[in-house]
Every structure is written in C-alpha cells, then in structure tokens.
Specification:
The protein contains 3 helices and 3 strands.
C-alpha cells in the first residue's frame, strides 16, 4: 500500500513539473530575440548611432557587428585608455589583437 502511494506521488510530481515548465518553440535555435544577461529585446544600431557614444562616460564599441556598451568597464580595462581608441566605432581588430591572446 505504501509503495502505491509513493509511486502515485512521484507520478504526480513528474506530471506537475511537465505542466509547470514552459516549452520552448525554438527547438535548438537559441534565443534569437534576446540578448545577454538582462534579457532585453535586441535592437539594431547604425554606425552613426554608435558613433555618438565615444567618450569615457559613454562608451560603445562594435565587435563582429555586435554593439557593446562598455562604459562600466572603461576604468577597469587592463590596457588603460586603449579601449577608447575605437570608442564609438568598430573595435573588432583591436579586440582580437595579439594583446588579448585570441
């Protein structure tokens, strides 16, 4: 009798978990409409848009056609102000340079 109750509880628990856990419609495609840690919807920026963010207090860079707001990292960058060399522009070449070992 105790075994039947235990098996019933396990089955109910599994069914409940399957009901509660949402299913993804992506089927292995990954998250296409979301970005990074904060889950905000992706958006497109022109190079002109990015170029307006070229200061120490507001620094965006482009790496492999993706835009990154690196403002919080500028002061911590181990290469000092080198990160500002391409602020507001494409930094792909500098990012994948020999100094980063990539």
């Amino acid at each position: 009798m105790e075994i039947i109750i235990l098996i019933s509880l396990v089955v109910l628990l599994v069914l409940g978990a399957l009901y509660v856990i949402p299913r993804s419609n992506n089927k292995g495609k990954g998250k296409e409409a979301h970005s990074g840690r904060n889950g905000k919807t992706s958006r497109s920026y022109s190079k002109k848009d990015v170029s307006t963010h070229s200061t120490r207090k507001d620094c965006w860079i482009i790496i492999k056609d993706k835009v990154y707001d690196v403002t919080p990292y500028v002061e911590e960058h181990p290469g000092g102000d080198a990160i500002l060399n391409n602020a507001g522009a494409d930094s792909t070449e500098g990012f994948f340079g020999p100094q980063h070992g990539l």
